[in-house]
Amino acid sequence: MIPVMFVVRRLLALIGVLVVSSFLVFAAMYAAPGSPEKFLVQGRTVSPEVLAAIRKQYSLDDPFLVRYWNWLTNVLQGDFGQSLANRQDVGDLLANRLPTTLALVAMAAIIIVVLGIGLGILAGTRDGVVDKVVLLASNLGFAIPTFFAALILMSVFSVGLGWFPVFGSGTGFFDRMWHLTLPALALALPSAAVVARITRTAIREESDSEHSIMAIARGVPRSLVLRRHIIRNSMLPVSTIVGVHIAGLIAGSFVVEYAFTLDGIGTLLVGAVQKKDFAVVQAVAIILVAAFGIINLLVDLLYASIDPRVRAGRE
C-alpha cells in the first residue's frame, strides 16, 4: 500500500507546479504582442475615452500582480472569465468542447496501452516472424506523423471503404465513439509504436537478468517467472513512457481535431490564438498544464505500486 505521506508530497509538488505554471501562462499572454483593447476595437479609430472604458471594464489598468491574483482566485472558483471574441463565458465554451477532447484522449490512451504493451510483450517473449513483424510495424508507426496518419486512415477507411465517418464528433455515446475511432487511431499510432519498442526491450532485458535465469534454473515454471518477475519488473520503464505519451496526447489532439474537424478544445485554442482571445487561451493553457501534472502524478503512484523500493527511497 502506498503511504499517505508519499501521496501528500506528490500532491503538494503538483500544486506548486500549477501555481508557477499559472503565473507563467498569465504573464506570457500579456507579454505577447497586441492587447485586448486593440482586438476589441478591430482596428477602428476610437476616442481615448472609449479605450479607457474598455480598459476599466476588463481591469487592464490594475497592477499586473493584482490582475493575476484576481484571475487566479476566479479560476479556483471555476470562473475563467469572458471570451473577448464572442462575449461568452469561457467556462461554457470549455464545457461544450472538453468532452470531445477527453473522449478522444481516453480512446487513444486505451489504444496505446492495449496495442503498445500487448505487441511489446508479444515481441519480447517470442522470436522469429512475430518479433520481426512487430519491429517492422513499430518502425512504420513511429515514422508516420500524426497528421499524415490521419490522412491515410481517412483515405482508406472513410473514403475508400466507407466504414467510418470523416468529419464531426457525432451525437450520443456510441455515435461519438464511432466518429472518434479513426481520430483516436491516428493520435495513438506513433505513441503505441514507441511503447511497443520500449516494452519489447524491457521484456528481453528482464528475461536475461540474473534473478530470472536463476528462478528458471531452480525449477520455477517459466510462465510464473514471466508473469511475476519479468513482466512486472518490465513495467517500470514502460509505465514512465506510457505516462509521458498519454500526457502528450492532449497537445497532439489539436492536430487530429483540426484534421477531422472535431469540436474539441484544440480547435477552440487555435481560433482563440488567431483572434487574440486572451481569456480562452489562458484557460486552455492552464487546463493542459493541470492535465499533464495529474497524469505525471498518476504515473508516480503507479511506479510506486509496482516497485515498493521506489516509494521507500522517496519517503
UniProtKB/TrEMBL annotation:
Keyword ATP-binding found: no
Recorded topology in the membrane: Multi-pass membrane protein
Localization annotation: Cell membrane
Keywords in alphabetical order: Cell membrane, Membrane, Transmembrane, Transmembrane helix, Transport
Similarity comment: Belongs to the binding-protein-dependent transport system permease family.
Name this polypeptide is given: Peptide/nickel transport system permease protein
First-listed, main subcellular location of the protein, grouped into a coarse class: membrane
One GO CC annotation: plasma membrane
InterPro entries recorded: BPD_transp_1_N, MetI-like, MetI-like_sf
Domain ABC transmembrane type-1: 98-299
Pfam families: BPD_transp_1 (PF00528), BPD_transp_1_N (PF19300)
One Gene Ontology biological process: transmembrane transport
Transmembrane segments: 12-32, 102-122, 134-157, 177-196, 236-260, 280-304
